[in-house]
Amino acid sequence: MSKTIIITGGAGFIGSHVVRLFVSKYPEYKIINLDVLTYAGNLENLRDIENAPNYLFEKVNILNSDALENVFQEYKPDSIIHLAAESHVDRSILSPLDFVYTNVVGTVNLLNTSKKFWEKDYSGKLFYHVSTDEVYGALGETGFFTEETSYDPHSPYSASKASSDHFVRAYYDTYRMPVVVSNCSNNYGPNHFPEKLIPLFINNVINKNHFLFMAMDSIPVTGFL
Ligand SMILES: NC(=O)c1ccc[n+]([C@@H]2O[C@H](COP(=O)([O-])OP(=O)(O)OC[C@H]3O[C@@H](n4cnc5c(N)ncnc54)[C@H](O)[C@@H]3O)[C@@H](O)[C@H]2O)c1
After folding, report:
1. What's the 202 CA to ligand 1 centre distance in angstroms?
2. Which of 71, 91, 116, 162 could lock onto 135 through a cystine, CB 3.0 to 4.6 A?
3. Residue 130 backbone phi and psi in degrees, to 5
4. Residue 133 annotated in active site
């Protein structure tokens, strides 16, 4: 069965792996990578699949509801996999509003556009929201989180992701939009942006830096995942 799936944030670290997986595994699906290409987005991450016949890239900001509507009008997506976000904890401490705009307002924009195009018939539709386990706060030395764990965010980043999770759940409760929220733990691997902990440490070891600090875009980065 053919489907059209929009993957937001597809030029970022995790998104680029998700895009590649879907483009390769489901040649009968049309995969639209929707990304505004912030400092964290890099189309080099997708060079190997950029000419695949089932892959398209749209440079769109999720804060721009007109542009989102144009994309929905053109491609009539069946599903959204929503990864676009401001994702770096240190940056959220320096600039919380950017996180409110992208992670909260951007997500609500995307929900509204999906609702507008899908609400006559939600069958076969899915809004899959990728969130983080950081919405549950800090884990003790033992134990684990479940979907029943109370939300307890502590950074502007996790507070913005928690807020977006609540909106996604509210669109199910209020409008019966089919949604899934997943709250994964830290990821690492190829294409990880070098401000994050593991690539930061590896780069510092390779370059024999004595301090695990570095400045990127004038922001001191201390190495949160
Ligand atoms: N990296 C992790 O370990 C981790 C863990 C748990 C959850 N997550 C979640 O997974 C998702 C992806 O994380 P990541 O590490 O790949 O992030 P990332 O920062 O590497 O990529 C984010 C992508 O979103 C795009 N983007 C940002 N603002 C946008 C906007 N306004 N409009 C359109 N595109 C925009 C960026 O250009 C970039 O390509 C995020 O929602 C994050 O909260 C990540």
Report:
1. 21
2. 162
3. -95, 115
4. yes
CATH code of 4-188, in short, is 3.40.50.720
- How far does residue 31's CA lie from ligand 1's centre (Å)? 18
Residue 113 near residue 82, CB atoms below 8 Å? no
pLDDT in tens, 41-71: 999 999 999 999 999 999 999 999 999 999 9
DSSP one-letter code for 208: T
d(CA 29, CA 2): 5
Kindly report the pTM of this predicted structure.
0.92
Give ∠ CA 183-189-191 in degrees, rounded to 5: 105
- The boundaries of every CATH 3.40.50.720 domain in the chain are 4-188
Express each pLDDT in 35-49 by its tens digit: 999 999 999 999 999
Our answer to whether residue 121 is catalytic in this structure is: no
